[in-house]
Request: fold
Amino acid sequence: MISEEDYVGFKTVFDEDKQNRLQKKETIAKELIAYEEKLRTHTNISSALEKYKHIDTLTHEIINDFVDSVLIGEKNSTTGKQKIIINWLL
Reply:
């Protein structure tokens, strides 16, 4: 037999431990999803690299397999230069 005070103390500790473990489980699940996505992306890129190992001409299809997006900034009226950012699928 344990006292009610001891029971409440143990329950509090166990509840906190349970909450910490649930949070850790959620964090691990999110990390697993991120890892699986990275692995899927890596596999896709590896396949594309193998597919285009010996290319002679850059085609629209090749660009689609390697480029996620292209961002084009406003043209500077003084210099005539324009910032272009290419986001690769890496």
